Inverse folding.
């Protein structure tokens, strides 16, 4: 049943959030420290464990995949509810940060692509 | 008549938001296909439309208008984080083995490079609050890592808007820039496509950029890019934020 998948997702989400907030209290920082990241790791681990055990029925995974496919629409809805009028003064930061970081990352490609290059044959140089 | 309609739309706000976002997506993908020949991903256009609609309202964007209040429910932190966690379903840990050492290194370098360079730009342009700096740096990773970091650290909505915009700019630059620069950076084989995906990380930008360069490279770039947002959500609001805090002190 699809609800099993949704329930598993909710479990991972909540445990991740608890871990994140607990970590925040532990190191005395108000906030959720990496909760979403922990939740994602939990989901990856439980998914592969359940697959191995043969517990992950297609119907179960559809319950999770539905929410996975909803994330872009949800991000669009989120974008529409942000305080953009106050953010307009920071517009240049957004443009510069986004553009410079991407251009910089482009030029790291040939550097890091050298790692383990020997394994792939027929690799022309940059 | 208008009153009844208004009443129904307000009372069923979440469902109206589903309809509205569906229409935005339809329109955005139509523009992407019809006007830009898919050169700019529909996803990026949809988010830009979303940001544009937010101008209709004030502090809470379009959801300040009562009939659109449901958008705040659909786009709120709870459903957003829930859906983002669900995307981990597509990431199989065995897959990262295929990506190999170069793929793993590219992911780690990609997330930290984007975060710290983005954070530095925010600082250089006058932001001094470590939480805001970390949120903008996270936005330079992807438009999802930004808001997740911002919400986790509790920054105001306008900083989150900046982080989303930074992520969208990244997607657009990656999409348009990749085919132009591909030759210069040796992006013509699966190996460097795997590295490229891990360094850029924004899945829509990586796939659209590679598709415009050589469609055969798309799955290799997507392989590493899938892990990028998850890694960003894990590192940015935690270790990376501490490093920013440490430097600030």
């Amino acid at each position: 049943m699809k609800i099993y998948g949704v329930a598993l997702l909710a479990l991972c989400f909540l445990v991740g959030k608890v871990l994140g907030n607990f970590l925040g209290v532990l190191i005395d920082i108000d906030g959720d420290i990496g909760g979403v990241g922990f939740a994602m790791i939990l989901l990856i681990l439980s998914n592969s464990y359940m697959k191995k055990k043969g517990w992950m029925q297609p119907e179960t995974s559809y319950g999770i995949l539905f929410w996975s496919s909803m994330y872009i629409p949800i991000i669009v809805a989120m974008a529409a509810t942000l305080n953009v009028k106050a953010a307009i003064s920071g517009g240049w930061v957004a443009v510069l940060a986004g553009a410079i970081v991407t251009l910089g990352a482009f030029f790291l490609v040939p550097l890091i692509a050298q790692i383990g290059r020997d394994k792939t044959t027929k690799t022309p140089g940059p | 008549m208008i009153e009844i309609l208004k009443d129904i739309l307000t009372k069923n706000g979440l469902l109206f938001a589903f309809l509205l976002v569906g229409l935005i997506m339809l329109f955005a993908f139509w523009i992407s296909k019809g006007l830009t020949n898919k050169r700019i991903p529909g996803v990026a256009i949809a988010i830009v439309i979303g940001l544009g609609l937010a101008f209709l309202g004030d502090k809470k964007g379009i959801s300040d208008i009562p009939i659109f209040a449901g958008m705040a429910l659909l786009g709120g932190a709870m459903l957003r984080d829930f859906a983002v966690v669900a995307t981990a379903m597509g990431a199989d840990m065995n897959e990262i083995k295929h990506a190999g050492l170069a793929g793993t290194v590219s992911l780690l370098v990609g997330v930290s490079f984007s975060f710290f360079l983005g954070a530095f730009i925010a600082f250089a342009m006058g932001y001094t609050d470590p939480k805001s700096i970390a949120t903008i740096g996270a936005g330079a990773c992807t438009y999802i890592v930004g808001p997740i970091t911002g919400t986790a650290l509790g920054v105001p909505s306008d900083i989150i808007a900046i982080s989303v915009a930074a992520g969208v700019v990244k997607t657009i630059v990656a999409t348009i820039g990749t085919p132009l620069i591909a030759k210069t950076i040796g992006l013509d084989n699966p190996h460097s496509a795997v590295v490229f995906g891990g360094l850029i990380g924004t899945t829509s930008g990586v796939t659209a950029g590679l598709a415009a360069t050589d469609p055969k490279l798309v799955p290799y770039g997507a392989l590493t890019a899938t892990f990028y947002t998850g890694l960003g959500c894990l590192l940015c609001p935690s270790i990376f934020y501490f490093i920013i805090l440490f430097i600030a002190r």
Q: What stands out?
A: The first helix of chain B runs from residue 2 to 11. The mean pLDDT of chain B is 91. The two ends of chain B are 60 Å apart (CA to CA).
